[in-house]
Amino acid sequence: MSDEALAARAAQGDAAAFDALVRAHTDRMYRVALRVCGDPADAEDVVQDAWIAAWRGLSGFRGEAKVSTWLYRVVSNTAVAHLRRRRPTASLTGVEVVDQGPTPEGQALLRERAAAVHRAIAGLEPGQRVPLVLREFEGLSYAEVAEVLGVEVTVLHRRLHRARVALLAKLRELR
Questions:
Q1: Nearest Cα to 76, choosing from 147, 152, 22, 130?
Q2: Per-residue pLDDT for 143 more than 60?
Q3: DSSP one-letter string for 62-92
């Protein structure tokens, strides 16, 4: 059954359909929450809150966007709201780093660089962090990210440019 059909059934109170949506999309939502919040426990809380918000908002889902796009919006908004309630931003501990170096020294250098990038991303404002995470880590197209954020693609390009400039500045600070 398609996500759209599941969402329609869940909006009518079908708990099994909603459960199928939860099983299909929780991992993706958790990755976004983790990269935005930086803390695994916070990410779990955000995902739970996002699913509650999704359940409550299903009756208002008009199907103009894909269900996955709508869920990205729900989890992104929930994560940003969580960050606003919880200042300052925590470091991105627990984020998976893939070892690719051929030697132990090379692996250590890659881990160090990845940790620096994650710290720099954690230092960005949520308005910069969310589009960057959705585009660069989740691989959404510009059109999909713009739809999730509810902005025009041209506005998204400007936001991403500012986010990338800020990220580079943060990386320079961390050197």
A1: 130
A2: yes
A3: -SSS-HHHHHHHHHHHHHHHHHHHS-SPPP-
